[in-house]
Design goal:
Blueprint: E1 20-26, E2 29-34, H1 44-59, E3 65-70, E4 76-77, H2 81-89, H3 91-110, E5 115-119, E6 122-124, H4 125-133, E7 136-139, E8 144-146, H5 149-152, H6 160-168, H7 170-179, E9 183-184, H8 185-190, E10 196-197, H9 200-215, H10 219-229, H11 231-235, H12 237-250, H13 254-264
Parallel strand pairs: 2-3, 3-5, 4-6, 5-7, 6-8, 7-10
Antiparallel strand pairs: 1-2, 8-9
Length: 277
């Protein structure tokens, strides 16, 4: 789909995307909708596209702000189990997906243009990465946010270590990341994990209003402010790199074999009681 601004002739940098849809709710706002027909789970194609979209947004002179949301009633239901099985089975796949996971985070951090997330239904996995790393995060009161890494049997590496303690404090971050307990949008807003909460009927309009306001503002001032603030995240880069490395090392462990099997069989996991640590 060509999303260039009216009258602006440019190569359609978004034409090759398969899992992300694009529209313009405002002349200078690009809305990115995750859409794969399977609760917007991050399969191999979507994961790769989430890794590169932020560089395309940064390079697009017709975009001043972006919105990331999910099609239908879901933001994103997390990682695709088929991709997880491939990660477990293949070093080449692990290396590729590790590189993409790192790029999703750092490309969002380095994109100078503000990003607004609009979350409803559930927000898990790579979708949650984009939802929480957005500069302004908005969710419905009943949206369920879950970081399910330890329930799967791997370390919480996608994005959690770089931003959760900064947003909601170490005590809350440890509780939710170690236990994988879901939290509703209303509670996420109360503890500072997200920026705003709004009713489902108003979510899309609120996201467009916030993004439009940012798109119409003083662009140099807004972008330089984001760049400066994101140095807090850049300082935590080594923490994130360590967590991501431990996550992908965990994909070779007995824990993840049991964690994935329990998900597929819809039962409580019975993880090995001993650890090498």
């Amino acid at each position: 789909m060509n999303v260039a601004a009216p009258g602006h002739v440019a190569e359609d940098r978004y034409a090759s995307y398969q899992r992300l849809r694009f529209d313009r709710p405002h002349p200078k706002v690009l809305r990115i909708t995750m859409d794969n027909g399977r609760m917007n789970t991050a399969d191999a194609v979507m994961h790769a596209e989430l890794a590169r979209i932020w560089a395309d947004v940064a390079a697009d002179p017709s975009v001043n702000a972006a919105i990331i949301t999910g099609a239908g009633t879901m933001f994103s239901a997390g990682g695709d189990f088929g991709m997880i099985q491939e990660i477990m089975a293949s070093f080449e796949t692990r290396a590729r997906v590790w590189k993409e996971a790192r790029a999703i985070v750092y490309n969002m951090v380095d994109c100078p243009k503000p990003v607004v997330s609009a979350m409803r239904g559930v927000a898990v996995g790579a979708g949650l990465v984009c939802g929480l790393l957005a500069d302004v995060s908005i969710a419905t009161p009943q949206c369920r946010l879950v970081d399910g890494h330890t329930r799967l049997g791997v370390a919480a590496g996608d994005h959690a270590a770089i931003i959760w303690p900064l947003l909601c404090g170490m005590a809350k971050a440890k509780y939710y990341l170690l236990t994988c307990e879901p939290l509703l949008g209303s509670e996420a807003e109360r503890i500072g994990l997200i920026s705003l909460v709004t009713e489902d009927a108003d979510l899309d309009a609120r996201a467009v209003a916030v993004a439009g306001n940012l798109a119409d503002g003083a662009q140099t001032a807004i972008r330089w402010t984001k760049i400066a603030l994101n140095n807090w995240l850049r300082q935590a880069g080594p923490i994130f790199d360590a967590s991501l490395g431990m996550e992908f090392l965990g994909f070779t462990s007995p824990d993840v074999q049991e964690g994935l099997a329990s998900h597929l069989e819809k039962r409580t996991p019975n993880f090995p009681k001993d650890s090498v640590l």
